[in-house]
Every structure is written in structure tokens, then in C-alpha cells.
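Input C-alpha cells:
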């Protein structure tokens, strides 16, 4: 949700800001803007739409200045427009700010400022912060920011510059991410690490309610009382190339193709072979006390929630432990029952999703222990959980999650099997067999991807279908949910998922000749049930694509198309069976002339409610 950047150094700021914003565009692309402090003036340029429109606008201009801030917007308050684009300024235009988050009490603050004679230019919540800083400004920008922070409520990552204070950028965060890159004679802030990688690998992670003051040659940190805070840098080992498209047309296609490697990285170091193969989660601090839990509660949002549903089935199957899975945005506002013996598994690619963090903090308050599964090192989730299991998928840039999802599944399986083993449900021999199956998956995914043209051809014929339903049972139901989400978010096709057994209880009324039904069929014990469901929708005119194992001929007679995946243990099939759906969604999006990396109305990291 919005990306913010800031640069102070010896170089011209504009190219650095634009370059850094390009790496954050996945966070929002409703508009973009920069404010650069030149020798005398604050130069502000903004444009509605993707960053390229801002680039076009400034292409023939020379914007001189070695410090500045920038923003790429995902609109919350006020429609996408030039005027609502950040940076926003105070009335004199001397103070400029960029903001990621929501100022919840903006209406009250706005009335107060208007009564004092301030005229607002935009409909945004952010603009109040610029005027509020101005309101408190008595010659010291830092003090004015401290005073303003006492008044604002909500979530924010803010960067502030002033024409009257040309030696520093002030940045602060609460419930929205912000990282600071320490360079040589230059310092940079950004909402996310990929924006910094070209300039530095030494990164400070700002904690909630910490303030950073960036000078050209150093950075100072304070709490919101203005007391100094000591911080150390962390070295980021991410590969720059992994945050680039690397020859692929879109990040999403690249990330789909990165799954075999990502899955290998997730497994590596967590499997050890002595007399037989075993899972090692000591690196995350997991010991037998965790397996004594009375119940597991999994909370997450979107795709990560789907990983949680697979987790429920996996934990119940492999560890025989009761599991609840909840959408974090529901969980946080319910009156849920849990006790300190329960263990929470919180899943989030970004580790910054506002609802997911709120659910985690609720669990923490209730005394429960928390395992985080996340992809982003140093994210808020990673820092606040008791144990962190990183997915090691590398940066995921496309809004539609692919490799983060399959690596989340891999983590969930490893934890479930470890629980099962420690609880005596899975014996040594079975554990070794399961590990063999997991270790085979990266190579199986590679083989599956080699056949991607089959899905491309199918998409070329079906992309215009206005309705697509995904159905499956057990693990295949979870993947139906994920498949429908992928298709709707990047191709804007109305797609839904159904537990196949539910079809007759309502959804079948929607099926007609215009419907594509994708039946995911990997749960061998239920093949006959699925075949009946396929026949039922076919009888109502639907076109049916079946996703099943390569050695299964059960559905040959009933399906209009079959996509075959390598055979694995049924419980592990989700990692493989989701890949055709990812490809199908991607190719439908491209066929429709859309940009799969930047779907309308969406942003990669949902850091506001
Ligand atoms: C995935 O394709 C979605 N864009 C979205 O549902 C995402 O999974 C969700 O917002 C949760 O994000 P997180 O994993 O970063 O918490």
C-alpha cells in the first residue's frame, strides 16, 4: 500500500528516487510524485497513473537537487488524481511529506486546521500531516514532527523535508514498514528492501514509533519523546538480479518459474540424513515443547490464508492435532477463544499485512506462542513472533503471489510433519518416505513447468469465458480457492471456488454453457465423487478442465481438457496442482491485454485495514 522513498547524498536525487520508486511500484500505481530540494526551492512533480507518466512529465526537465522524497500511491482517501498524489505540502509549499498508511483522525485534525485558516488542496488524509507539522513549526523541523506525531492516530510511514532545513530528511513509522539504507556519503529510505539494493546492503529496520533523521554522512535515531535510540545495521544478502525481471516479460512469470529453486531453498538445511531422513527446525528454535500444544490456530489473509487451509488439513492428517484457520481480518474483531497452550501460526509473505499483525498481537496479548511463516527478513511479523520460519523464496514483486505461496506450503508441511513426528503419530519410516516425496517436488515442479505451453494453449481458447469455477475436495478445495483468487485478481474474470460436495447445495444453479469449470482431482480416494461432480456440470453445458496426476486416466472420458501433474503423495499435491492455475491466470491476463504484475485496485502489501 503505497511506496515511499527518500534520498540525501552527493548525487542528483531525481534519478535515484525514480529508480527506487520503480522497485516499489508493486505497492501501488494510482499515481506517483517526487519533491526535490534544489538550491533555493522545493521542486514538486506529480502525475496520475503509473510511474511512467511521471517519468514522461519530467523527461525534458533538469531537476537539480541532492535530496528529495518520492511516492507511489495506492489510493485510500481521495480518487487517483494529480492533486491527490503525494508529496503533499503545507500552505507555503516549504514543507513536503510522503506517507504510506492511513491517518484515522484526519477529519478531526482537518476541521481544527481549517478553523485556523488553512485551505486544503486535496481530499487525502495525508495532507493534514503537512499542515500539522507547519502548525507546530517554530524553526526546528524535528521538534515540529515530534509535536505532530502526538496528534495523529492511525498507521504511517512518513518522510518529511523542508526548504528551511536543507541538511536532513526526517522519517518515522508506525504500523507501516520503513527501512533505511546506509551508504557512503548518502542515505536512503524506502518502504521495502529491493528499492535500496542498488545503493547499499547495510540496512536499518525502523521499529514502530521510531524516528530516523538522515543526514548526508550519518543517520540518527530517536523515540517519539525525542530521546536518542541506538541501532545497528543488518546486512541484506538478497541478490539484486532476483529483484529484476531477468529476461521474463513479467515478474509473475519469472516468479512462477523460480518455484523449483525457491522450494529447494526452503527445504535446504531443514532436512538431515543420519540413519534415516529427519526434519531439523532447531535453526528456528523449534523444540519438543511446541509439539505439546493443545491446538494450532492459523491466521492469515488472502493467498497466505489458503496456505493456512492446506495447513489445517496437513496438521490434522500428519500430527492429529486440532487446527482452526481464520481470516485475520475476521479473527481480530471476533471474540475468539484461545488459551496460552494454543500455538499460533501466522502466515504472511510480506510480514507487514495490517490485519495479520493485529491477529498476531492479539495472540501475543493472550499469552499464546507464535510461529511466523514469512518471506521478508526483518519484517514486523518476523521481529514480533517467537519463532520465525523464513520461506526463502526471494523477493516476490508481482502482486499475485506464486512462489511465496508454494514455499509457505513447504514450510507448513515441514512443521506439520515435525509435530507428527514429535507427537509419535508419524514413525521414522513414514517420515523418511514423506521427506523423499517433499525433496522430489522441486524437480517435479520443473518438469511441470516445461509443459506450460499446454496451459497457454488452453488459456488462448478460454480466456474470454466470463465465469470460471474451481472445484475440488480436501486439499484440492484449498487449491481451488487459491486458483480462483489468482484468476480473478489478474484477469478480472469472475471466478469462484467450491468444495465439490457443496455444488448441489446452490452453486450449480450458476452453471451454464458460458461456464468454465476447473476440477482439481488429486485426492485418489475421492476420484469417483469428483467424476460425478464433473458429469453434473458437464450435463449443464460447462466446459471442464481437469488437473490431475500424469498417470491417472480416470477423467479422460469426462473432461474437455486435462492438465497432468507429476504424481506425489496426495497431501503434498497442492504445491504442484496450484502451478497450472497460476499459469492459467497469467496467460488469461496477458491474452486480455492486461498487466499481470499490476492488477487494478490491488497492491502487494496491504498495510492498511
Ligand atoms: C495474493 O495473490 C494476494 N495478492 C493477496 O491475497 C495476499 O496474499 C494477501 O494480501 C496477504 O499478503 P501477505 O502474505 O503479505 O500477508
Amino acid at each position: 500500500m503505497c511506496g515511499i522513498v527518500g534520498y540525501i547524498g552527493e548525487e542528483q536525487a531525481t534519478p535515484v528516487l525514480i529508480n527506487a520508486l520503480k522497485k516499489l511500484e508493486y505497492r501501488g500505481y494510482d499515481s506517483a510524485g517526487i519533491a526535490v530540494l534544489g538550491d533555493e526551492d522545493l521542486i514538486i512533480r506529480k502525475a496520475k497513473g503509473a510511474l511512467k507518466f511521471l517519468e514522461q512529465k519530467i523527461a525534458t526537465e533538469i531537476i537539480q537537487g541532492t535530496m528529495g522524497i518520492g511516492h507511489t500511491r495506492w489510493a485510500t482517501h481521495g480518487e487517483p488524481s494529480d492533486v491527490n498524489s503525494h508529496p503533499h505540502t503545507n500552505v507555503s509549499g516549504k514543507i513536503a511529506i510522503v506517507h504510506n498508511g492511513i491517518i484515522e483522525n484526519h477529519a478531526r485534525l482537518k476541521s481544527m486546521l481549517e478553523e485556523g485558516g488553512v485551505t486544503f488542496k486535496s481530499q487525502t488524509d495525508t495532507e493534514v500531516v503537512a499542515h500539522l507539522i507547519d502548525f507546530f513549526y517554530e524553526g526546528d523541523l524535528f521538534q515540529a514532527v515530534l509535536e505532530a506525531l502526538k496528534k495523529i492516530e492511525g498507521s504511517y510511514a512518513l518522510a518529511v523535508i523542508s526548504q528551511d532545513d536543507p541538511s536532513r530528511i526526517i522519517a518515522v513509522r508506525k504500523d507501516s514498514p520503513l527501512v533505511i539504507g546506509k551508504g557512503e556519503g548518502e542515505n536512503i529510505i524506502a518502504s521495502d528492501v529491493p528499492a535500496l539494493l542498488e545503493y547499499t546492503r547495510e540496512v536499518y529496520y525502523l521499529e514502530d514509533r521510531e524516528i530516523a533523521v538522515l543526514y548526508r554522512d550519518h543517520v540518527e535515531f530517536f523515540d517519539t519523546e525525542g530521546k536518542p535510540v541506538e541501532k545497528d545495521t543488518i546486512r541484506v544478502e538478497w541478490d539484486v538480479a532476483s529483484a529484476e525481471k531477468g529476461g521474463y516479460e513479467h515478474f509473475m512469470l519469472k516468479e512462477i518459474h523460480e518455484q523449483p529453486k525457491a522450494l529447494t531453498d526452503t527445504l535446504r538445511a531443514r532436512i538431515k540424513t543420519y540413519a534415516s531422513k529427519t526434519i531439523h527446525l532447531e535453526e528456528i528454535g523449534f523444540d519438543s515443547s511446541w509439539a505439546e500444544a493443545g491446538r494450532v490456530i492459523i491466521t492469515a489473509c488472502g493467498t497466505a490464508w489458503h496456505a493456512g487451509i492446506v495447513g489445517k488439513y496437513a496438521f490434522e492428517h500428519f500430527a492429529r492435532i486440532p487446527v482452526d484457520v481464520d481470516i485475520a481480518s475476521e479473527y481480530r474483531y471476533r471474540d475468539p477463544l484461545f488459551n496460552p497452550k494454543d500455538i499460533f501460526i501466522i502466515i504472511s509473505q510480506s510480514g507487514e499485512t495490517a490485519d495479520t499483525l493485529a491477529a498476531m498481537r492479539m495472540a501475543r496479548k493472550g499469552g499464546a506462542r507464535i510461529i511466523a511463516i514469512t518471506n521478508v527478513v526483518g519484517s514486523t511479523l518476523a521481529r514480533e513472533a517467537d519463532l520465525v520460519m523464513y520461506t526463502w523464496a526471494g523477493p516476490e514483486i508481482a502482486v499475485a503471489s506464486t512462489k511465496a505461496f508454494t514455499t509457505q506450503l513447504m514450510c507448513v508441511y515441514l512443521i506439520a510433519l515435525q509435530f507428527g513426528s514429535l507427537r509419535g503419530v508419524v514413525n521414522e519410516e513414514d517420515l523418511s518416505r514423506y521427506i523423499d516425496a517433499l525433496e522430489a517436488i522441486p524437480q517435479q515442479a520443473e518438469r511441470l513447468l516445461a509443459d506450460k505451453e499446454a496451459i497457454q494453449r488452453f488459456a488462448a481458447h478460454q480466456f474470454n469465458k466470463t465465469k470460471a469455477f474451481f472445484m475440488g475436495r480436501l486439499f484440492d478445495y484449498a487449491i481451488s480457492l487459491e486458483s480462483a483468487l489468482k484468476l480473478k485478481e489478474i484477469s478480472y474474470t469472475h471466478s469462484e471456488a467450491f468444495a465439490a460436495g457443496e455444488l448441489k447445495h446452490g452453486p450449480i444453479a450458476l452453471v451454464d454453457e458460458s461456464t468454465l469449470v476447473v476440477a482439481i482431482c488429486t485426492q485418489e480416494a475421492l476420484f469417483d465423487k469428483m467424476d460425478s461432480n464433473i458429469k453434473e456440470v458437464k450435463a449443464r453445458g460447462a466446459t471442464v478442465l481437469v488437473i490431475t496426476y500424469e498417470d491417472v486416466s480416470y477423467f479422460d472420458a469426462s473432461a474437455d481438457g486435462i492438465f497432468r501433474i507429476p504424481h506425489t503423495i496426495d497431501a503434498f499435491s497442492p504445491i504442484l496442482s496450484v502451478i497450472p492455475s497460476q499459469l492459467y491466470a497469467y496467460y488469461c491476463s496477458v491474452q486480455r491485454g492486461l498487466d499481470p504484475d499490476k492488477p487494478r485496485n490491488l497492491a502487494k502489501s496491504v498495510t492498511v485495514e
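The longest strand covers residues 165-174. The pocket of 2-deoxy-2-amino glucitol-6-phosphate is lined by residues 301-304, 348-350, 353, 356, 399-401, 489, 605-606 (CB under 6 Å).
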